[in-house]
Amino acid sequence: MGVVCFDVKKLVYVYLVRYAEEQQDLALLSISTFQRGLKDPNQLIRASALRVLSSIRVTIIVPIMMLAIKEAASDMSPYVRKTAAHAIPKLYSLDPEQKDQLIEVIEKLLADKTTLVAGSVVMAFEEVCPERIDLIHKNYRKLCNLLIDVEEWGQVVIINMLTRYARTQFLNPNINESLLEEGNTEGKTFYPSDEEEDEDEDEKEKEEKKAEAMAKRKPYVMDPDHRLLLRNTKPLLQSRNAAVVMAVAQLYFHLAPKAEVGVIAKALVRLLRSHSEVQFVVLQNVATMTIKRRGMFEPYLKSFYIRSTDPTQIKILKLEVLTNLANESNISTILREFQTYIKSMDKDFVAATIQAIGRCATNIGEVRDTCLNGLVQLLSNRDELVVAESVVVIKKLLQMQPEKHSDIIKHMAKLIDNIQVPMARASILWLIGEYCEHVPKIAPDVLRKMAKSFTNEEDIVKLQILNLAAKLYLTNSKQTKLLTQYVLNLAKYDQNYDIRDRARFIRQLIVPTEKSGALSKYAKKLFLALKPAPVLESPFKDRDHFQLGSLSHLLNAKAGGYQELPEWPESAPDPSVRNVEVKESVPEWSKCSAREKRKEKKVDKPFYSDSDGESGPTESADSESNSGSGSDSGSASDVSASASESEESEEGSESDEEEDKDEPKHNKKKLQDMKKPTHNTESEQSSEEEKKPQRKPKTRKMSESESESEESDSESSESESDESDSEPEIRKKKKVDPKASKPVKKEAKKESKKEMSLLDLDDFEPAPSPQVTPVNFMSSSLVTDLEGLSLSDDVLAPATISPSSSMKSFELLHRITGEGLSVEYCFSRQPFSPDANMVSVQLHFTNNSSSDVSALHVEDAKLQSGMRVKEFPEIEALAAGDTTTAVMGIDFCDSTQAANFQLCTNSKKFLVSIQPPVGELMRPVFMTENEFKKEQGQLMGMNEITEKLTLDSHCRNEHAIVQRVTTAANLSRVPCGADHECRFAARTVTGNSLVLVTVAIKQEAAQVTVNCDKMLIGTMLVKEILQALAQ
Amino acid sequence: MVPLPPVVAAGRGRRVNMDLSRPNLQLSVEGARTGPQRNWGEAGSEEDFKVKNETKRREPPSPSSTMIHSLFLINASGDIFLEKHWKSVVSRSVCDYFFEAQERASEPENVPPVIPTPHHYLISVLRHRIYFVAVIQSEVPPLFVIEFLHRVVDTFQDYFGVCTEAAIKDNVVVVYELLEEMLDNGFPLATESNILKELIKPPTILRTMVNTITGSTNVGEQLPTGQLSVVPWRRTGVKYTNNEAYFDVVEEIDAIIDKSGSTITAEIQGVVDACVKLTGMPDLTLSFMNPRLLDDVSFHPCVRFKRWEAERILSFIPPDGNFRLLSYHVSSQNLVAIPVYVKHNITFREGSSQGRFDMTLGPKQTMGKAVEAVLVSSQLPRGVLNVNLNPSQGTYTFDPVTKLLSWDVGKINPQKLPNLKGSMSLQAGASKPDENPTFNIQFKIQQMAISGLKVNRLDMYGEKYKPFKGIKYMTKAGKFQVRT
């Protein structure tokens, strides 16, 4: 404007914007000034001109606004671009016709790389075209990376949008876990209350679903972009802005794997210190979360204790959370708290507390009687409201087991003289009527009293009096006939039509007349039917279908403009849409997948190093082989086993370091010392032979990274006396070698990163190579590579025979039945990396016929429920006389049932079946002696199976026993201090149940003990081991 | 040309805005009050009435959504004394729903923060006995709005010293200017106090005087460049002759003590408030002696999070002036030292209309520091008519209407413990109350952070001068409650 004075100018703007709609002509006069302002060299003036211009709600200037926005969107100054983004929704609300053009502008602004613009443009996106999710793809990674620097209000909008985006683009990280949980942990479920209920309801249906889902299940690997989002939002939990914290919390709740959701609890609890309005919203959300993930907030139980100064609505919400958190272990403290709450002056709150006690009592059987007694005591409270509320709750509780509590019913019958609250009176009457058999003497008397006061009662009480009369008439008509008639007569002339109606109905039903219909026969059934006890549920039970933190969730009703949170997709859409030509940051592949892999195998135990889980090899080297790994997942322990191997080889030179590792190492040494003299000359020779070609490359690598001593040579050689094909992996491992200092580590990481991203295109494609280690093993992570390696070079059972050389082969297809094609299979004991729950089976094809066989593949698997098969990639051609190998994975569901399927060539089909020996249904785990003992202590009784046998003369030494046992079953040796005892541990592949084997030797007698919570497996394993030892 | 009319319009505009808040208000409030009351008896028709009313007002349902449509400020007596619309005008009759909810709630703080109405949602916060009611029309995260409203209040407080109805009315122009800058089309634009202060100068007595004489204004003459910088929280071109940086470490003890004196729950929440007046663009680092104490922290956006994660050092370019650098929670593993204890004996005898009251305060685990500014307050049972007490020190008051007893003790002298003793008279004939009052205790301990947190050092980079640095510790009672 022409005026110089800033103050006036500002106020003119305020005025203009406020009244433009009403006085359009006047407003139009000012337009030209703003247009001039849009060309001003000062960016701030350009911005504020656009801002005011776009705020003028006059339809005629829509084209001018459109033009101005378009121009501003490509302005030099990010601030002007931000203003342009702000102007978009304004124009859109003025004229929705412009949508298409506006989307173009949004698309352009979304590509902006400044933090200033990001928040505003996403806001515009949300308002104009939230359905155009495709616009986000290219900007996804950028938004994630910028997020932390965006201003706080923008963060909220972006996080909410990304939550929705992630739900459409990524796979549910909990899908495997939820299935696993259902599948394996019957009885020991993690969240007992929820699951048990469910199970009772529709077990069959669930069973079917489960089988279906299991069949569908694929190995879950978190998309690195998914990980990126989770990682970049986590620091925002530390924001001072409650809205940002809540947004991150909901993002984690909806998107993160179960094990990681816990991090939000602390931040949410912190918000409870804030203003009461913030508390109100946060508590609502916490209440919803506690229903699904109770464990998360249990440590913070005390933060939800109620103070007398809290506003009532906060108190009631806290009560809700406390009730949700109650379980067997903390119920006594919670009930003690509740006791003090009952004495509060806030009567609404007291009533809510009584209801909460009722809910605790129904949910936790142990305290039901205690609660009931407490509530009965409250019946003598002076406050009528308290008494009334207790009556109502007691009524519900009694319904669960009325026989036991007739004295309480009697006590309540007496109360009817004093209590005036209609609801309570009605409850008592109902109770007496329902259980009149338990109080045969009192009931008619109560009816008599009620008949006297009938006319003065409230309507609900009257209805219950009628109810009581009818029930008594049916059970005890001698005493109550007249009374009932009297009551019915009174009701007949009542003012309320409901009561008149009810009286008429009851009379027809129970009083026998000539005309009475067929129904009166069933009167007793109608009135005295067994009623199911009410379920006291949280009002927050089903709220989580709304996005947490949203207005709709708070109101438990869909608010206008609410964007439904989409369900996870069945299969992930193409992740490559997010690839941007110029990558600013390569996603850290190795890190993500390595972590995910481990998590997937073992969910509920914490993986032991959160922050330095950067890459498998480095980590395993740093971590101590004996401390964390035993409790950890299979793969991790494998890795650390391999690490301990390398450490050991270095030990000669650095033996004074790492004192805490000493103990097991001594054991190992002792073991080796002991064993050396008794070594079979034969096996030693063979290992010596194998050693020779290998040692050279290895030594070279070793000397590169670490100084090596002679001793290490001899030691490592033993562990290496296994497969020859693990060699390249060793080299790789050495490349990323352990002890490397920081810069080296980084380099190594980068290297692996590059490798990964090169390979990521064929990530999920079946491996084309028939090698034991298909290519996709590598892309999934380095760790898996090492798994394969470490499995075999098990230091602790040095005598383990190398799997590939002496692997027992079974015939799958005989040469004659296969018309020239013969197939053998063996269990390679390698982890099947595409799916950790599968046993990998190595197939060896030989074409003995004179013609080529082509298109070898698996078809039409006929499996027991729950079993799954991952076929080997089709073998295109097998020339005459040629042989080839392939690997397939089978999930046997921890049973020795055979997996049947058809092996097809281009022309023929052969029905074949693979039956696993029980020993192959497990994978070795590493654990320390103490852990072993602890675990064994927990698997006593039914889970322990013991057999005795006499040992042959040639297998009385430890070495031979170890060898035989490990051949029979895929077990790993556990270090053992005691002589004459060998211990082994493994976990079943699917169920992850621990299998512990102890072989105690006394001269020529031996005792084999197997501890496993799957008894069938235990029994079979004992037999297998006995057989192996007896040979 | 154009210059003249807008000026006139501006003058009018101002008046119109002011005027709007007066006469109409009475009417609409009247409507709000009488409307629901008339219909009180028939529960069923109430809803219909609302809907009818709403449709009569004929508010056009807007096609698109905006985060915050309008803001109404309502004082304790239920008058709408200020309204601001960021988009088309929403009739103030929408506040009727709020008044209804207010009537239903027994206490002012029990008004639900979110109230759904047929066409809008009302989200309100209560601060300084003023309700800030935001009108929204569609899905918005409620915390987003609540947090923003609190930020508005904080800004007012920052500008006017207090946030009262009088202060807002006195500074109505600044208030409008602020609201205009803080929200654009309902989306928060500039909420950072440093930027706002560059845009709109806070009023001071001196400036008001100068302004009235010279006719100059509050609005900054210079354009705010802070908005454009990478450190949006700091204004540019800061200059001081005395460069100083003060940090206050304030810890609050939240505790619930039960009848027998044992601690049910106790935790320490702390904040580091800063007052930084440094020239130029200083880059500060603050390190603690024992950062492991801090369990959960939340930062001002200026703090570099990565640095904290890696080194446990606070590194930041501070905003100019007062700000809260950090708030933290001390990990619950550490036992919390409770600095005061309370001995109490409150009895009501059955039958008689008298009750006895006896309470003594004493220091405990204070590490030799004096416990000051002690204030005990308690809500006595409704049956208590009056009290007749005798404090050994300080003064006490009892409000017979609200039954609120408060005792201003002052400083606790460990040699002579403060004691409050006497009798309570109860309603004649009423049975003895079975509720137990709880005591809320406030106190302050200077020069001590109860968790033992200590600042190690403060370094400044990026500027040449040597600033004056100061650190102050204080412990306060937060929600400190003793149950009886």
TrEMBL record, chain A:
Main subcellular location of this protein, as a coarse class: membrane
Region (Disordered) location: 182-215, 565-772
Feature: compositional bias, Acidic residues: 193-205, 645-661, 705-727
Localization: Cytoplasmic vesicle, Clathrin-coated vesicle membrane; Golgi apparatus
UniProt biased composition (Basic and acidic residues): 206-215, 593-607, 662-692, 737-757
Compositionally biased intervals (Low complexity): 619-644
Membrane topology summary: Peripheral membrane protein
GO cellular component: AP-3 adaptor complex; clathrin-coated vesicle membrane; Golgi apparatus
Alphabetical list of Pfam families matching this protein: Adaptin_N, AP3B1_C, AP3B1_C_2
InterPro entries, per database record: AP3_beta, AP3B1/2_C, AP3B_C, AP_beta, ARM-like, ARM-type_fold, Clathrin/coatomer_adapt-like_N, Clathrin_app_Ig-like_sf
A single BP term in Gene Ontology: intracellular protein transport
Keywords, in A-Z order: Cytoplasmic vesicle, Golgi apparatus, Membrane, Phosphoprotein, Protein transport, Transport
Record-annotated AP-3 complex subunit beta C-terminal domain positions: 751-897
Function: Subunit of non-clathrin- and clathrin-associated adaptor protein complex 3 (AP-3) that plays a role in protein sorting in the late-Golgi/trans-Golgi network (TGN) and/or endosomes. The AP complexes mediate both the recruitment of clathrin to membranes and the recognition of sorting signals within the cytosolic tails of transmembrane cargo molecules. AP-3 appears to be involved in the sorting of a subset of transmembrane proteins targeted to lysosomes and lysosome-related organelles.
Family note: Belongs to the adaptor complexes large subunit family.
Protein name from the UniProt record: AP-3 complex subunit beta
Organism of origin: Knipowitschia caucasica
From TrEMBL, chain B:
Subcellular location: Cytoplasmic vesicle membrane; Golgi apparatus
Residue spans of biased composition, Basic and acidic residues class: 47-60
Superkingdom of the source species: Eukaryota
Database matches in InterPro entries: Adaptor_comp_med_subunit, AP2_Mu_C_sf, AP_mu_sigma_su, Clathrin_mu, Clathrin_mu_CS, Longin-like_dom_sf, MHD
Keyword Transport: yes
Matches recorded under PROSITE patterns: CLAT_ADAPTOR_M_1, CLAT_ADAPTOR_M_2, MHD
Primary residence: membrane
UniProt-listed GO biological process terms: intracellular protein transport; vesicle-mediated transport
Keywords, sorted A to Z: Cytoplasmic vesicle, Golgi apparatus, Membrane, Protein transport, Transport
Residue ranges annotated for the MHD domain, each copy included: 242-483
Any one GO cellular component localisation term in the record: Golgi apparatus
Pfam families linked: Adap_comp_sub, Clat_adaptor_s
Membrane-related topology note: Peripheral membrane protein
Residue ranges of the region described as Disordered: 19-64
Sequence similarity: Belongs to the adaptor complexes medium subunit family.
Protein name, UniProt field: MHD domain-containing protein
Organism: Knipowitschia caucasica
